[in-house]
Amino acid sequence: MKKFEEKTIHTEQIYKGKVISLQVDDVTLPNGKTSKRELVKHPGAVAIIPITKEGKLVFVEQYRKALERSTLEIPAGKLEPGESPEWTAERELEEETGYKTAKLEPITSFSTSPGFADEIVHMFLARDLEVVDEKADGDEDEFVELVELTLDEAFRMEREGRIFDAKTAYSLLYVQAKGLV
Amino acid sequence: MKKFEEKTIHTEQIYKGKVISLQVDDVTLPNGKTSKRELVKHPGAVAIIPITKEGKLVFVEQYRKALERSTLEIPAGKLEPGESPEWTAERELEEETGYKTAKLEPITSFSTSPGFADEIVHMFLARDLEVVDEKADGDEDEFVELVELTLDEAFRMEREGRIFDAKTAYSLLYVQAKGLV
């Protein structure tokens, strides 16, 4: 897993932010030459595929400043310091949807943008959803709205461009492949 | 598509690099409060699912500095100025794999990390591959090795963690769902 390894000669820290940091590494390439790599550091995130007892998928509509538009996505959120992915997934599911589950199943983990970022998203399946009695508040700068859809409706939203991100596109194919609804 | 819109009050340019840029925007939230958004700007990219006449999928093994490891991914690359996604896809397919096709089919486009980056990946399917007579050279700082796998072998590589990125994970489910091999 270290094939064609690029060794770091020097790291320049450019920015350290609330969510991400940016550094530029000088590296030695396999042919002995050097190059620069611009690298975004991210704490990692979770995403949850919530399926209601009625067989609907739960999405959140939210504004994505990076895209300057709103999207329909499966619930997701970044890891807070000291949190395991499981804890984050339980917390984000409850904060964003008002649902909880006793049955949180890890599916897979993947890198979202391996060319420039170290973000890894840990994917979970949440079935047998129960409504939380007293919904916890989420981040104070986060505004989301719940949307429950059948798988067919969700694929239509994807064709129409309202579902527009990799983890959610992956989720729809996963639910279909596993026959989960 | 502008629900919960966050209006920009001020943009601070932090870094302008070879591949990505970083800016921090002050925004007005729907409740009138303000917040900061750390935003990575990326030119966009393409990814290609190449299927050989023998029904194998073509991957490239490469070192990903952001992850400090090598991965098996479908061929991909960023858009150069003035290039259409189709051109980029043809170019990257040829540079990275030595294959070309007369049949490049757009599948979908998605945002990879909507929480902090504007990167969009345009996905293509490449069937009826032909070996290029004289392979064009790729980026001089890019070292890749070709790996051809059946879909079953690819799913095994994913379970073993050698396939580890969202666009490639999506590709495997897509090929399976559409019965392409």
UniProtKB/TrEMBL annotation, chains A, B:
Record keyword Hydrolase present: yes
GO cellular component: cytosol
One protein family per Pfam: NUDIX
GO terms under biological process: nucleoside phosphate metabolic process; ribose phosphate metabolic process
Keyword tags: Hydrolase
InterPro entries associated with the record: Nudix_hydrolase, NUDIX_hydrolase-like_dom_sf, NUDIX_hydrolase_CS, NUDIX_hydrolase_dom
GO terms, molecular function: pyrophosphatase activity
Cofactors: Mg(2+)
Residue ranges of every copy of the Nudix hydrolase domain listed in the record: 40-171
Similarity comment: family membership: Belongs to the Nudix hydrolase family.
Protein name: ADP-ribose pyrophosphatase
Lineage of source species: Bacteria, Bacillati, Bacillota, Bacilli, Bacillales
